[in-house]
Amino acid sequence: MAEPATIPLESHLRLTTRQFRLFGPTSSILSKSHRKIPRALSVTLQSKPPDLKSKQKSSVPVSLRHPNQHSRLEISDDSTEATVSSSSSSNGSNNLPSHVLRLMDALHMPLDEEQYLSLIKECTNMRDAAQAAIVHAHILSSHGDPLPLLLVNRLMLMYAASGDIENAGKLFDEMPAKDSLSWAILISAYSELPDGHYKALKLFAKMFSQPNEGEYFLHAIVSALRSCARSRNLGFGLQIHALIIKQVGLPEALARNLGNALVQFYCRVDCLDIALQVFDEMKRFHLETIGLSAWSGTITSCNQDGRFEEAILLFIQMALSGKRRDSKSLSSALTASAKVGNHGFPGKQIHADAIKHGLVSEPYVVASLVHMYSKQGLLTEAMRSFEAIERPDVVCWNAMLVCYTRHGLFEEAVKVLYRMKAAGVQPTENMINEKKEHSQLLAVFVSTYSSCIRFPSSTNGLLWQSNTKKSY
């Protein structure tokens, strides 16, 4: 792996933050054509209408999520921290906001702003574009223009959560006044789209040209850094780093989640040395603010860069800090342990840590355990680790297959392939190609594998062994 270019941390201070430059094709930030929001939709009143939710402002975490993605970005009103968690949409037929609106209209009872905010929160959690359009149409018919800023921000978040970025952008364009939350919502929405990173960064540059401050301004910075990382835009990310130093201050930034975003960004763009500088500053002054993603990302990056001892040391520091380990950090630390040797001693300690945290049956942890013990020549321990998982996936099977072929136990490898077939797991073409490259003897093994599977008889097994012995 090529060594990444080292950029001194002090050089960030010399970067200009007056103007952001984007590296990519020019395009307008938002499409000029927007789908019209329906003013009224027909709904059916159930025999037993649902009760109206309590009148509380939306102050709990809400989600920005694209319909084609399985993850969501949670945004809390009192924190700039952004976390990703998997969830599934639960759009039940009861307690729909449209039913509440129909009931209130039938009773000739107008809704106030707090009640609308409660319904908007329901639509946001449901991620239902149709319900969002109904609530928006009802608000426009009862309030008219202009709507209160808080209400428009929640409507934008509602549309973004349901995947309707077009209407969210239309609301943003039509807003006479915008605050930091308005910018943060749309930047976050674009940063979650696979093809929205350029728009997110262009919108962030436009936001920077206007006075902004507060928690949501910091959240917009985190979202912009996410887009820089995913689009591997090092130049823009360096300018954001300079902006953080000049406007927020590095000590305060490290204490408020921006340090985690910077570490992940530099790891993603292969600037590991800068990532470690930022990480060391966080360990010195704000150890408790280092997030799990920053720990795991740094350990993984050290491992990928061939700095295996540093990866293990970081894992030990992570354990000493009291941060709970996850499957990603454990897998990376085990892979590093396989490289450093020492008769599997670091790996055994990490194995014990995986058992302690109940992650010993995670597929990637199992695969890393098998790989680590195999590299150390501890085949019995590798087999025990493999048997600990009830339903191995293709990654675990592949690790066990590599374990046997690495040590020349091709008959055992054939048994693994038979077990894979019995378990309904089909080896991929990439898996077979990787095994072919392992050794010439294994190439003969792979070439006879198909016939052994097609005609599973003892004669074929003996014939296969005879062919391999004659060839080598």
Automatic annotation (TrEMBL):
Keywords: Repeat, Transit peptide. NCBIfam families: PPR. The lineage of its organism: Eukaryota, Viridiplantae, Streptophyta, Embryophyta, Tracheophyta. The keyword Ribosomal protein does not apply. GO terms for molecular function: RNA binding. It comes from Rhynchospora pubera. This is Pentatricopeptide repeat-containing protein. One of its GO terms (biological process) is RNA modification. Residues 85-95 have a biased composition (Low complexity). Gene3D superfamilies: Tetratricopeptide repeat domain. Residues 47-96 are annotated as: Disordered. The keyword Mitochondrion does not apply. PPR repeats lie at residues 393-427.
